[in-house]
Q: What sequence folds into this?
């Protein structure tokens, strides 16, 4: 198989956008193409476009988004497909781009992920996201992703001694990172005391799905992110040295959350990460920076453990010690994470890889992890029933 | 008789499931028979959800995951606010969602007396 | 100042209303928001704070701001009976306001809630303060409420489980009226209403200065 790298990255501001979906995707795509330094328009060099979006059909009533994007970018006759894999659509699209190049079928692939979610109310968005749950055994009950995250958190707290304050520490860390990331949605840092111990805390930071509170849950965001993937043997065509995709792992788990043997396990994360490490020939100890799917603060804890960055039951202790801050042993979610950068579903997996690329290139101004060489991104779909882990490496 | 909830038993190996599925996890069997799923169980975890999705006109609903003595674990709504992990609950079947032109029934667990 | 007779006859008689005792709330950002009752003399400043939002269509800011503007003007020029306005400030800067009026001893009429600064649940806090004023300080039996935006409906009607009373004619055009009864208030108050009293004198002095907001998240690039 040919080696594959990331030659260019693009990222719109996450938050609230008045643009149509395809226009927003175009912004990220053009930034990535320009960053890669390749031609656009008639003499373009893109062989294939993958667009990751979960909500285009249900929220924006638009289908075949990739076909629309390839036209407005004037990239015909490039191949184009739209990829839907829930909130893991982004990393799935990157995986497909990787396969297209590794197989020899393509040299250059544009991957764009994006979502316009704020066209609906927050509770309509919550309902839409819940459609990935089991229709009869979960969705019809009014169960949602926050509900499963709440139940998971209670088990995790009982089993490992995670506290509400531990989770708040993670939220504050990610918000602090987000204010150093100009594309992040939330540009406000909560005060740890105010959201946990202050006598007003119960009211100003109320439960969303107890024991999870408002500041444990990611916002609903619009936004897009893009990558130009290339064959490493074509690296000299691009203005920057491509960052190599060293490993990709993906795994699935039971659709129905209640059916899992050990309800505090996220087996798909464990397997996906293991496969990515094996493919990269790396160990968790080699990772210098990680973007983990913190749609809920508890997920940063659990994913950091299941991906081997910390022993089981110790993710919250690492966060408490400051190991996961920029400057700590293994900084997590330097972009602000889903929690503070925002979570436009289809964009998220791509956005995580954009951040890792910026980190290993040394371009993460204000939040740079010194000497970052290997980065891990974990993109989590369903309540952990479809997970993609991606490892990137700086080529010497 | 009101609506019932069922376990689905693999006719080949006897393994139970809820909800129904196409292929048995244990033996690959593809045929299942319906067995009423009812009675008491143990609450494994729960949450009160205050940010409900579109369509619910309540400030919050409690949900839980319950394990039946036969080992099956299911999600459901909780009819009581007096919740603790490990407590005994009794399965009832009730209206869990009012849909447009169709109502949905499912497990609503009560505190077992 | 002597008020001429015609003007005097246009003004509604005013009832005695217990003033709302100022409080402060620590917001998620750690900032302290002071909630205090505005005086009639404060109204011109409040009008300026509201004015920019009258053209913001998103989230029904336009209708809320335009009606609030008119209501405050009515209060200022003595054309509404027994109206009040509570204002939320952070370091003196206006971040939101709520208003309403006392219909009679028993019934409060909730008018509007506007949050200028967003993302800190300021609207929810100010709404709770308004209910607190009617039910805990004016000692009324109930407050009549309507919502003009879906977010308002969610926050008030559903979260407080308000009683639907379409037969009651709310002053904001009679749109379906919902009622917060004393019993519902007692049920939900602990989860909805917070804050400390008294406000330290220095903090209250700063709050009373009422500084106009220099930015509106609803209006990118806003310049006064």
A:
């Amino acid at each position: 198989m040919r080696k594959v790298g990331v030659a260019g990255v693009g990222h719109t501001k996450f938050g609230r956008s008045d643009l149509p979906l395809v226009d927003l995707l175009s912004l990220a795509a053009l930034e990535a193409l320009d960053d890669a330094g390749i031609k656009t328009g008639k003499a373009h060099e893109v062989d294939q476009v993958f667009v990751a979006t979960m909500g285009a059909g249900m929220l924006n009533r638009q289908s075949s988004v990739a076909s629309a994007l390839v036209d407005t970018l004037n990239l015909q006759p490039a191949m184009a497909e739209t990829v839907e894999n829930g909130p893991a659509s982004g990393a799935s699209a990157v995986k497909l781009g990787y396969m297209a190049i590794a197989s020899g079928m393509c040299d250059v692939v544009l991957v764009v992920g994006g979502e316009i979610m704020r066209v609906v109310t927050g509770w309509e968005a919550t309902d839409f996201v819940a459609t990935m749950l089991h229709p009869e055994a979960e969705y019809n009950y009014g169960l949602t992703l926050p509900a499963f995250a709440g139940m998971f958190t209670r088990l995790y707290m009982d089993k490992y001694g995670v506290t509400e304050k531990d989770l708040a520490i993670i939220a504050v860390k990610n918000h602090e990172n987000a204010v150093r990331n100009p594309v992040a949605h939330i540009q406000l840092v909560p005060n740890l005391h105010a959201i946990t111990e202050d006598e007003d805390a119960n009211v100003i930071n109320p439960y969303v799905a107890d024991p999870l509170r408002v500041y444990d849950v990611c916002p609903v965001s619009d936004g897009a992110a893009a990558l130009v993937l290339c064959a490493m043997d074509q690296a000299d065509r691009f203005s920057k040295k491509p960052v190599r995709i060293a490993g990709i792992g993906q795994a699935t788990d039971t659709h129905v959350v209640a059916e899992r043997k050990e309800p505090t396990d996220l087996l798909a994360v464990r397997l996906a990460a293991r496969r990515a490490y094996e493919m990269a020939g790396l160990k968790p100890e080699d990772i210098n920076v990680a973007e983990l799917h913190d749609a809920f603060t508890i997920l940063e804890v659990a994913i950091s453990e299941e991906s081997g960055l910390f022993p089981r039951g110790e993710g919250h202790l690492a966060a408490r010690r400051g190991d996961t801050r920029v400057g700590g042993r293994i900084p997590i979610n330097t972009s602000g994470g889903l929690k503070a950068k925002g979570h436009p579903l289809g964009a998220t997996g791509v956005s995580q890889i954009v951040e890792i690329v910026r980190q290993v290139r040394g371009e993460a101004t204000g939040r740079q992890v010194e000497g970052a060489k290997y980065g891990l991104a974990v993109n989590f779909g369903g309540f952990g029933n479809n997970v993609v882990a991606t490892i990137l490496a700086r080529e010497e | 008789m009101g609506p019932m909830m069922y376990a689905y038993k693999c006719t080949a190996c006897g393994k139970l499931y809820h909800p129904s599925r196409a292929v048995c996890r244990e033996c690959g069997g593809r045929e299942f028979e319906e067995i009423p799923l009812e009675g008491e169980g143990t609450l494994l975890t729960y949450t009160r959800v205050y940010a409900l999705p579109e369509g619910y006109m309540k400030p919050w609903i409690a949900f839980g995951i319950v394990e039946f003595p036969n080992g099956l674990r299911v999600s459901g709504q909780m009819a009581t606010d007096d919740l603790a992990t490990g407590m005994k609950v009794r399965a009832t079947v009730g209206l869990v969602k009012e849909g447009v032109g169709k109502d949905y029934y499912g497990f609503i667990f009560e505190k077992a007396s | 100042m002597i008020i001429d007779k015609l003007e005097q006859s246009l003004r509604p008689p005013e009832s005695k209303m217990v003033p709302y005792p100022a409080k402060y709330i620590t917001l998620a950002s750690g900032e302290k928001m002071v909630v205090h009752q505005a005086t009639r003399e404060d109204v011109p400043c409040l009008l300026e704070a509201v004015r920019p939002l009258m053209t913001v269509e998103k989230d029904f800011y336009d209708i809320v701001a335009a009606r609030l503007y008119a209501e405050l003007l009515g209060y200022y020029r003595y054309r509404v009976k027994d109206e009040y306005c509570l204002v939320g400030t952070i370091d003196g800067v206006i971040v939101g306001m709520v208003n309403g009026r006392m219909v009679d001893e028993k019934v409060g009429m909730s008018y509007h809630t506007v949050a200028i600064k967003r993302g800190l649940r300021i609207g929810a806090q100010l709404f709770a303060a308004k209910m607190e004023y009617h039910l805990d300080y004016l000692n009324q039996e109930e407050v009549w409420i309507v919502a003009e935006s879906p977010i308002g409906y969610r926050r008030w009607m559903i979260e407080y489980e308000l009683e639907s009373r379409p037969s009651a004619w709310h002053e904001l055009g009679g749109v379906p009226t919902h009622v917060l009864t004393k019993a519902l208030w007692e049920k939900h108050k602990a989860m909805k209403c917070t804050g400390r009293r008294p406000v330290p004198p220095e903090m209250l002095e700063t709050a009373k200065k009422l500084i106009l907001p220099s930015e509106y998240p609803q209006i990118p690039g806003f310049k006064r």
Notes: The beta strands of chain C are 23-26, 32-37, 83-90, 93-102, 107-115, 142-145, 163-164, 178-181. The longest strand of chain C covers residues 93-102. Chain C touches chain A through 20 residues (CB under 8 Å).
